[in-house]
Amino acid sequence: MYLICGLGNPGREYETTRHNMGFLTIDVLAERLGISVRQLRFKALVGEGRVGSEKVMLMKPQTFMNLSGEAVRLAFEYYRLEPSQLLVIYDDADLAPGALRIRRSGSSGSHNGMKSVIYQLQSQDFARIRIGIGSSGPIPMERFVLGHWTEEERPLLADAVSKAADASLCFIESGLDRAMNLYNTKSEKKAKKTAEKAGEPEGGAAEEKADPGSKAEDVQSEGIKENT
């Protein structure tokens, strides 16, 4: 069995925000696989189906972002899952818009949802897909991630969500190495071309060398913190 968890915030007002890239990817997967992600279990909306011979659960935690790990832990305990059976999908402001990075393990960087998952599982050794949303620039980070896509971002981010769904299916069917080889390479080339066209430095590749957490801003507002 595989648990595919997309991170995001529940509620219509957050549906098309940059912070909900994980939820949007789950929606695409659900449509492709014919899975209804409407059952409330484990503090999350979940749905079960199959990819070939593999049983799959799609998950959208309903706890708000910084408590996402509670839903993952409850499912882990119920099904007695191993970290190798988990894939987490989420947004990353340290990657260029539309870029994908698939990793076998790693820190949470600046992402509160991933911090919660790692804390609840007491492990960071699980696969993840990071979807680039770009730097916040002069905009405060909490306002940026809870903001809606711009018209310029829309085609890049929609394509990234579709490719993240492709990569998730590849992970289930062919393994993590295959998914990394196919989708990291393609996304890096695309991010490079996009940056060159915009006359900007290659943000994705350069930023990957640094610890993503080094760029994180502490969220000061308690009202916003629960969502970011």
**H/E order of the elements?**
EHEEEHEEHEHHHHH
CATH topology: Rossmann fold
SS-derived structural category: alpha/beta
Query: Which stretches are low in confidence, meaning pLDDT under 50 for 5 or more residues running?
Result: 187-192, 194-225
Rg from alpha-carbon coordinates: 16 Å
The CATH top-level class label: Alpha Beta
Q: What is the residue-mean pLDDT, rounded to a whole number?
A: 82
**CATH arch. level architecture:** 3-Layer(aba) Sandwich
Name the descriptors:
228 residues, alpha/beta, Rossmann fold, 7-stranded mixed beta sheet, 8 helices, 7 strands, 18% strand, globular
Can you characterise this structure?
The protein has 228 residues and is α/β, with parallel strands linked by helices. It has a single domain, classed as Peptidyl-tRNA hydrolase (Rossmann fold), CATH 3.40.50.1470. The protein is built from 8 helices and 7 strands. Strands 2-3-4-1-5-7-6 form a 7-stranded mixed beta sheet, sandwiched between helices. The protein starts with a strand and ends with a helix. The relative contact order is 0.18.
Concise account of the structure shown:
The protein is of the alpha/beta class and about 230 residues long. The chain is built from eight helices and seven strands.
